Amino acid sequence: MVSYGTDEMRKELSYWLALQRVVGVGSVLAKRLIEHFGGPEAVFSAPERALREVEGIGSRVVSSLKHFDQWEDVAREEMLIEKNQVVIITMRDRQYPKNLLSTYDPPPFLYVRGEIQEKDTLAVAVVGSRMGSDYGRMATERISFELAQKGVTIVSGMARGIDSAAHQGAIRACGRTIAVLGCGIDTIYPPENRELFSEIAARGAVVSEFPLSTPPLPVNFPKRNRIISGLSLGVVVVEASSKSGSLITARLALEQGREVFAVPGSIDSARSRGTHQLIKQGAKLVEGADDILSEILPQWEAPQRVKEEKTEREHELTGGSRAILDLLSLNPLHIDDLISRSSIKSGEVASILLDLELKGWLRQLPGKMFVKVKE
Prior knowledge:
43% of the residues are buried. The protein has helices at 7-21, 27-37, 40-45, 48-52, 59-66, 71-83, 98-101, 134-149, 162-172, 194-203, 220-230, 245-255, 273-280, 289-314, 319-327, 335-342, 346-358; strands spanning 87-90, 109-114, 123-128, 153-156, 177-180, 204-208, 234-238, 259-263, 284-285, 333-334, 362-365, 369-372. The chain folds into three domains: 1-74, 5' to 3' exonuclease, C-terminal subdomain (DNA polymerase, domain 1, Orthogonal Bundle), CATH 1.10.150; 114-299, Rossmann fold; 317-372, Arc Repressor Mutant, subunit A (Orthogonal Bundle). The strands form two sheets. It has a nine-stranded mixed beta sheet with strand order 1-2-6-5-4-3-7-8-9, with helices on both faces. A three-stranded antiparallel beta sheet has the order 10-12-11. It contains 17 helices and twelve strands. By secondary structure, the chain is an alpha/beta fold.
């Protein structure tokens, strides 16, 4: 988690913010650069030859990185972050949502008000029409309430109508909920949701990938929809017309390997055409929370079992392996530093590193740098 406390942390934050502003660097390429070099500062300091080795990078992006000159804009962004008490969670942080990180194009970092917790891995998105009917809003709030009561985090977009009802259902159940904005996190949209914004931040988190002061432009919302679906194990669509943005979220969910659910409505309502279309295409018809839980719980419980098995395997590590692994984190560390800090002979350290890499505990980066594999 990057903040603005120490000079070192402020410097790291500056490079994350700068990478976001480099022309030609979107989420996919940013992820690729971070994985290749280990961090944003290393990306900016990398020689042109090394940059050109990264898949998908062209001369224009290399030039943008080497001649980056928007540091004043970065400094202004840092001031806004501090002023608004916003937390930055990067894809290298343990707090970064695991569901989202597993998608093709996760944001390099998220602006957060509130707190994202480990339990938010068990999450379901509930989305639908901004012009939701009384029936749609009541069904949404009931389903969200039932899911939240059973420990499921409700994810939505804090828009009018169905989205707001989804958040309110979770809050009424004293459960957790996450709102994903299509604007800067310092902009409350729609403005009448100011109180709801505060309640969500208190019972979960409000998140955005957009820089502060970004207005709620229409072009932003399809982009934010991939985060709504990416945070979740499944997406429930309630009342959507045949051209609704909620259908974009459903399509993105399918591309991300998520489950898609739909709540049926009146055959006479235009608001139901999109949801009925989804059901015809194979989305599971939803009448209550159990219809959703029966699908998502098996896929959520399987990784939990794998995690428990991995924890058990940790006990099998030898003393030297354990000592080396304890020194590693998501921040790259040179082999010489590992030797000096562990007081283990260089030949033995090299052997341990190879063994740990083969077992999947760590990864070697260029220049004999090593990082612990994120769990």
